[in-house]
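Table S2 (continued). Query chain:
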Amino acid sequence: MRGLRRQPFTGTVCFALIVLFMCHCSTEKKTGQPDAGTAWEKLGPGGGGATFIPTFSYHHSSEFMVRCDMTGSYLTTDSGNTYRQINFDNGASCYAYDPHDSSTIYVGSTTLNRSVDGGKTWTRLFPRAAEVTREYYQGDHAEYRITTSPASLYAEAEGHINTIRVDPLRPEALYFSMGNFFFYSFDRGQTWKREDLHHRVEYLYGNAASKKNELYIFTADALFTFNTADQSFVPHELPAAMSPAFSFAAGVRKNTGEVIMYALHHDVHQEISGEFGYSEIWRSEDNGATWAAISDSLITNRQGGIKPSFSMLVCPELDADQAYVVSNRYLEKKSGGSSSYWYGALKTADKGNSWAWVWKGGGGSGQYGVKDGSGPANLKDAWVEQAFGGEYIRLMDVGVFPSDGNIAIVTDWYRTMITHDGGKNWKEVYSVASGNGSFTSRGMDVTTAYGVHFDPFNKDHLAISYTDIGYHQSFDRGKTWSRSVNGVPTPWINTCYWVAFDPEVKDKVWSVWSGMHDFPRGKMTRDPKWKERRSASGGVCVSTDGGRSWTPTTAGMGDNSPATTIVIDPKSPAGNRTLYVTVHNKGVFKSTDDGKTWSLKNNGLDENTAAFDLRIGGNGNLWLTVTPVPVHRDGKKGTDYYPGAVYRSTDGAATWIKLHVADSLLFPNTIEVDPAKPDRVYLSCWSDITLSDLVGGDVTRTAGANPVLHTPGGIFMSEDGGNSWTSIFDPKQYVYGVSADSTHPGRLYCNTFNQAAYRSDDYGHTWKKIRGYDFHWGQRILADPNDSGQVFLTTYGSSIWHGKPLTE
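Corresponding output:
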C-alpha cells in the first residue's frame, strides 16, 4: 500500500493519511497483548511495507514507536532489536511521549488513547465512553467510525486525532487537534475545552526552556500563539511567499535556548503533483514573527537548476541546530544535458545554513522496478537492499530523538533504518540476517500476505504469497525466510497472489503474479485504463526446483494477465495437469497440458470478468467469485459499476452458471468447499461500501452524491450445491476469508476487517472470537497441516500469525 504520506511532527508527531485510518480502543483495553496460552508467533522476513511517524521517547533513545500504513503500531524499548505490535482499529494517526513520565504514551486515532504502563494497556481518554452513541465499520477498508452525543466536543466530521502534545512545563496540561479544532485540558484529560481556529492544525510546539505560558499552533497559513494562562489565541499570518506551508518543526538551540522554527513550502507557481512539488525550506529565529527562505545551494539545487521536492522535515526539540529533510526528487545534471534522479535525506548541523546528504540513493532514471541507480553506501541493511536496491525507493518519513540530533530514523517503502552518528551510518531495524541468505523479522511485519502454502514433500518448506515483496519461502518451518523472484518478469514481481504445489511431483510449484496489488479492493480499478496499465501485467509462473527459480508460462493468456488464484485439478494426471487460473481483468483460464498453454473459459459469465477467487470441490465442481468494478463506459469514468457475482461450473469451466445468493448487490471475496461434503459451500462477503469506494471520490463529487451501497457481508452457506444460500454470520462484518479445517469435521475459521477472527465447531451455526488476535485487517485462516492444533492467520498488513485458535 504505497504512496500514503504524512507531514512529520517532531517528538509528538502526527499524521493525516490520504485514506483516514482511525481507531477503536475501549476503556482499559489490552491491545497487542495475547491472553495467557494464546501467544501468537509472527512469521515473515520483517519489514516489506511503508512505515511512518517514527516517534522517540523524551527519556530514552532506545524507545520509539512507528506505524505501518496497514494499521499496525510497533513499539520498541531496545532500539529496534525487538518490537511489540499494538493494534488499534484502522491504526494510529499520531503518537506522543510524555516528557514528564517515561511510562506514559499517547496515541491518537479515531479517539485519544493513553497508556501509563509503557504501552501494555490503553485507556480511551477522549471521547468518554458515555458520549459514544454508535460504533460501526463502513467502506472498502472497513473504516471504524463513531458517533457521539450532541453535548460531546468530539469532531465527528474530522473523525481522527491529528496532533498531540503534553505541555513541557505543566504535566497536567494536554493538547490535541482534530482538523480545525484545537482541544486543551489542564487536568490530564478529565475535562476539555475546544476552539475552532478555522485553519487545519498541523503541528503543536511548546518548550520548557523559555519558561513562557505559550503554545504555538501551526497551520498552513497562520501561526497561533495560545496563552495557557489566560487561554487566549493570537493569530499571525505566515508570509504570502511561504504559504501554504507544511511539515513544521521547532526546537531550541542546545547552547543558547534560542527557538528555531522550520517549515516546508511548495512553490505554487510550478506544478505540484501529490507530494511532489518544487520545494523551499523556511526558517524563523524570532518565534515565528518573521520567516526567511533558506538559500543553501544544496537545498535550492542551484547547480541542477531545478528545485528539489521535499516531503517532510524534523528537528530535535532540544537540539534545533540539527535538522533532517527528506527529498524524493532531486535532479543533478549530467554531461550531455540529461539528469540523474536522486532521493534520500539531507541534514544540517548549523540551523539550516548549510546542508549535506546523509542518505543518498538513486542516480538513475528514478523509476520503480528499474535498477539503473545505486543504494545508499552508508547503510547496513537486511534483505531489502538486495531485493530492491538500485531502483527508485521512496522515503516516507523521518524522526529524531528530542535531545540529540545524531539519533534519527528514516523510513521508506520497505524498511525502517536508524542512525546514532548523525547520518554517517545507518542500520536496519526491521529484520535479522540468518547468515545463509535468509532473514527473520524483528517483530515489525508490515505487508499483506494472501496465503501460506505447504510443500507436500517437505513439512519444513513453507511459502508466503505477498503483496509488494512477491514470493518468500522458508525451509525451517518459518524460522527464516528468503525472497525468490528469479525468472519472474520484472513488471510482475510486485505481488504473488497465490501458489499451488503439485501434490505428486516433488519441487513442482505454480504461482500467479501481478504488478497490481490489493485486488479486490475497489481503489485498484478506478482508472478507466487499469486493464492496459503497465502494472496490470501478470500471469503464471512454474518452478521445478521448489520455488528457487521460476519460468513464465502464459501462452494463450498473455503477459498482461493479473492473476489472483491458481487451482490444480487433483484428479488430472501428474505431468499433464489440468489447472485453472483467475485473471482479474479477463476472467477464467484453463490449461490441460500442465500449464504450457491456456484458453479463456468465460462462457456464461456476465460482462464483469473481474474474476478473483476459484475453488474446486471433491466432485470436480468449480466455484468462482467475481468482484465489483466500475463500468468505465467509452473508456471514461462514471458512476456505473458491475456488481459482484458467484458462479458454478460442473463441466470443467466449459460453462458457468450464475448463482443467486442474495436479493441485493453482492461483494463476494473468497469461497470454500467442505472437504468432506462438496455440496456444502461457504462464501465470504464484504459489507457496505460507498459508491466512491468503487468509482472514486472525484466521480462522486462531480455527480454530487456518494450513496452507501448496501451489501450483505459476513458468510453465506449453501448445502445443496449453490442452489440456495443462508446467511450464517453477522452481515455487517467485512469477512475476507472463510476456510474449513479438514482435521476437525465441522470446524470453520473466518478472518475479518473488523479487528477480529472467529472459529465455529458446528458448521457455522455458532461462532466464537479467537483469543489474542486483534489486527484490524485480516485475510484468511489456514489450518497447519503439520500440527492439527495450530493455524496460520494471513493479514492485510501484518504478515502471518501462527498459533492456537483458542476462543473466548
